[in-house]
Design a protein that fits this description.
Elements lengths: L11 H14 L8 E2 L1 H7 L5 H13 L3 E4 L3 E4 L4 H22 L5 H11 L8 H13 L5 H20 L8 H16 L3 H25 L4
Antiparallel strand pairs: 1-3, 2-3
């Protein structure tokens, strides 16, 4: 029997892309901060500019960096309009995905989240758990064009949460109650009710976000 080949190491351009994207999403590279291509190459162990430029081009397509002629590279900022657009997209896509494809989500995954929502004290990182929950609800959506558009805003949502960390964005008890309304309907195969509960959940999150924008300064 032929031995399995060892797993191929990610290409340099993929490593550069993942490295930079993580730094941007975690706000280690702050919105509107200028980046130096040569320094970025050095940070990654003096890789060549070719894989770095490939990674930067991909990040520009995703809207995470802006390449300014004669000025250089800048981490894209986040505006109030970005936040409004993000929730508009989520309100259009998430309830649609749940209503039409929720029955494809593994039931055990939904059961697991229901159990977790009854015991929020077991959750180490509530924001991550919340993101994972919404990712699960979207996981069965087969439309690659909707998924591509939706995936682009998930990073924006992460950055916005980190940027507004000094203002509590999530009431854990309330969020658990809202999640349970979605889950109870889903586990009863009532996908219209589940989608309506999800829409209400997102509308409350949008209203909270818009309130936060009014009291803090985005970078």
């Amino acid at each position: 029997m032929k031995e399995m080949e060892p797993q191929t190491k990610p290409s340099l351009k993929l490593q550069a892309y993942q490295y930079l994207k993580t730094k941007i999403l975690n706000c280690e590279y702050r919105p509107n901060e200028f980046l130096n291509e040569q320094k970025l190459c050095a940070e990654m162990g003096n890789i060549s500019r070719t894989p770095m430029r490939d990674a930067l081009g991909r990040l520009e397509q995703e809207g995470l960096i802006t390449i300014l002629p004669k000025k250089g590279l800048m981490v894209s900022g986040i505006t109030e309009e970005d936040v409004h657009s993000m929730f508009e997209m989520r309100l259009l896509v998430e309830p649609y995905a749940l209503r039409n494809y929720g029955n494809l989500i593994p039931r055990q995954e939904l059961e697991n989240y229901k159990e977790l929502m009854h015991h929020p004290d077991r959750i180490d990182d509530f924001c991550k758990s919340d993101d994972d929950f919404h990712a699960l609800l979207m996981s069965s959506l087969p439309n690659k064009y909707l998924r591509s558009a939706y995936d682009r805003i998930t990073g924006l949502n992460t950055r916005f949460r980190i940027m507004t960390g000094k203002v509590s964005m999530i009431n854990q008890d309330q969020t658990c109650e809202e999640h349970l309304l979605i889950l109870d309907a889903a586990l009863n195969d009532n996908w219209d009710t589940a989608a309506d509960a999800l829409q209400h959940h997102l509308e409350l999150a949008r209203d909270k976000a818009e309130g936060v924008i009014k009291v803090i300064r985005l970078w």
